[in-house]
Amino acid sequence: xxxxxxxxxxxxxxxxxxxxxxxxxxxxxxxxxxxxxxxxxxxxxxxxxxxxxxxxxxxxxxxxxxxxxxxxxxxxxxxxxxxxxxxxxxxxxxxxxxxxxxxxxxxxxxxxxxxxxxxxxxxxxxxxxxxxxxxxxxxxxxxxxxxxxxxxxxxxxxxxxxxxxxxxxxxxxx
Length: 174
Prior knowledge:
alpha/beta, 4 strands, four-stranded mixed β-sheet, globular, single chain
């Protein structure tokens, strides 16, 4: 179930609501989507990856919520971040990261490469990245992720970033 927010919310629920919104927005823009974790099921990371690969997906976006431990001053740690493993996914991840920063006004926690999360590590044939929406351990970040209006804006930023990246690939401009 992942991290627990300071108000008691669970990461799995925050992520599920975000993914449902992301899928809705992608579908509204004409994209076909495959959700690899439906409802409240808990498939293994290998099963999630298998579902993406078997669907012949062109892109893989994993949505999470970050958390900081007490030793890092968890109430001060805030922001959004993106992660990728392979260099061919860097520009994809960066395009989404830029839109997240511009649209959410959250702090910049970075676009991090060589990230070793199983589903993006083994997805070596499709651009794959991970979005850490914000920090469950930060009360303001948690409240934002629980707000449906903010959630829609954040997931819209993900869609716009993916569209930016696709346009750059189609035009040959990076």
